[in-house]
Amino acid sequence: MATRTTKLQAVNQVISNIGQAPVTNLNTTNPQVSLAEDLIDQVSIDVQSEGWVFNTEKDYPFTPDNTTNQIAIPSNILQVDMPWGSGYNVVIRDGKLYDRLEHTYTWTKQVKLDVTWLFDFEELPEAAKQYITIRAANLFAMRMTGSTEVAKYSEREEVNARAALLEYECNQGDYSVFSSGADVSPVRTYRPINTVWRY
Asked: Which class for 88: exposed (0-12), middle (13-18), buried (19 or more C-beta within 10 A)?
């Protein structure tokens, strides 16, 4: 019976990319295991920062603190935005919501933001886990050997994993040419595998 990929399984997949033996837990002083886990976390942040159907929400409500009139932004939020024409230009500064137009942290009422969340690896859909793992595995091989020739995973496999994630995005998002502009996912365009993806 198939099970969801764990962080331990992902780390073992990464270190196996250069022929290393699997480990039974992540509580180890093995520097290769630590590097593999760090790379998975870094790639996960990079991928989730793009904003996908599984980690974005529109019009998520935030209420100012009764004492300070400030809005604290949880640490597991990667970015926030407000709809065009809202009259605000918001960013996260010092863990709080800041209005760049009014130059203030003060809010007098609840605001609704479009949010991109950061989830733990094990909370992600399998398509995202696979892409993140393969991407991290190839980065790991380059860091450890200085060459991609010994890597188990090819650039093509990384591209295919990316394509599978995009297919998941399209299926889950139910996008169509008849959707309104606000409901249509941004079109992501391909760039070479050693660069970031833009949309």
From this structure: middle
Q: Which residue has the tokens 């993806």?
A: 197
| pLDDT tens column, 125-158 | 999 999 999 999 999 998 888 765 656 667 889 9
- Both structure tokens of 166: 């995009």
- C-beta of residue 33 within 8 angstroms of C-beta of residue 183: no
Report pLDDT digits (tens) over 14-51: 999 888 999 999 988 999 999 999 999 999 999 999 99
Residue 118, CA distances (Å) to 25, 68, 142, 171, 176 in order: 24, 26, 26, 21, 26
Local structure of 154: helix, strand or coil: coil
Cβ contacts of residue 184 below 8 Å, gap of 6+?
Answer: 175
Backbone phi, then psi, for 172, in 5-degree steps? -75, -30
Residue 115 pairs in a beta bridge with 57, 80
C-alpha pair distances (Å), 158 with each of 17, 34, 94, 154, 161? 13, 22, 36, 7, 5
CA distance 118 to 122: 12
- Give the global pTM: 0.83
